[in-house]
Design brief:
The chain is an alpha/beta fold. The chain has 9 helices and 10 strands. The protein has a 6-stranded mixed sheet, sandwiched between helices. The chain has a 4-stranded antiparallel sheet with strand order 2-1-4-5, covered by helices on one side. Strand 4 and strand 5 form a beta hairpin. Helix 5 packs parallel to helix 6. The relative contact order is 0.18.
Length: 252
């Protein structure tokens, strides 16, 4: 089976007048279609830098990144990026916000509009299509941000701590909602997070990065007997064992 995402020997540094800061060193991994992979590591280890490279916003100094066998620079239209904050535009309605990417790409057809309305209905936002972002809760705003990303029908979703701005209770619920939406749509996703519980509850596999320069210290597959709900996973006996395993890798 050919991986959807292939990262081979990727290294990257930042250069300033003060000198060079090496962010990532010889990163290699593959992700297959439909996988949900989480990336964890200490602060400053290069997690967000890795997402930036995977999105093609910057080119690695060494190594290659392929999406569906093509250089990432040629496949950016197949990649969706969900940021820490929803970045909804207050002067646009929710329907207009989730339509924004399609409008920019000149793909906003009557059929696309109908599909967006169906997605809003399916994910509990149908009655808020004409509302402004300020009228929605934080969790609802994040769902709208995800719909905006999914509307472009990306093959690969990059999630940069998308729940970090939410309070703890909302964060649990929204993580469960968004994980379910991603899996229902059969999307391949890479989640960067500082929250180990979040990573373990949502992902199929965890990549543990070392301190800067980031290297892959461990790759941990997760098996919850077919259970994919993050909230339910947290109550399963395997959860604490995986948490201790990931924590141990981070502390070594």
């Amino acid at each position: 089976m050919t991986p959807l995402l292939e990262v081979s020997g990727v290294s990257h540094s930042y250069h300033t007048m003060e000198g060079e800061t090496k962010a990532l060193s010889h990163i290699t991994f593959s992700i297959f279609n439909g996988e949900f992979v989480a990336v964890v590591g200490p602060s400053g280890c290069g997690k967000t830098t890795l997402l930036t490279l995977l999105d093609g916003l910057a080119a690695p100094e060494a190594g290659t990144i392929l999406v569906n066998g093509r250089p990432v620079s040629e496949a950016r239209q197949h990649i969706g990026y969900m940021f820490q904050r929803d970045r909804l535009l207050e002067w646009r309605t929710i329907l207009a916000n989730v339509s924004l990417g399609l409008e920019i790409q000149k793909r906003m057809t009557s059929q696309a509009r109908e599909e967006l309305i169906s997605m809003l209905d399916a994910y509990g936002l149908g009655e808020f299509a004409g509302s402004r972002p300020s009228e929605l809760s934080g969790g609802m705003r994040q769902r709208a941000a995800l719909i905006r990303t999914l509307a472009l029908k990306p093959d690969l979703l990059l999630l940069d701590e998308p729940f970090s701005a939410l309070d703890y209770q909302t964060r649990l619920t929204v993580c469960d909602d968004i994980s379910s939406i991603i899996r229902k749509n059969g999307k391949t996703a890479v989640l960067v997070t500082h929250d180990l519980s979040e990573a373990i509850s949502a992902a199929d596999r965890i990549l543990v990065l070392s301190s800067r320069p980031g290297t892959i210290k461990a790759e941990i597959p997760l098996d919850f007997s077919g259970e994919t709900s993050p909230i339910r996973r947290r109550n399963m006996p395997e959860f604490s064992a995986y948490f201790n395993l990931v924590w141990k890798e981070l502390k070594i």
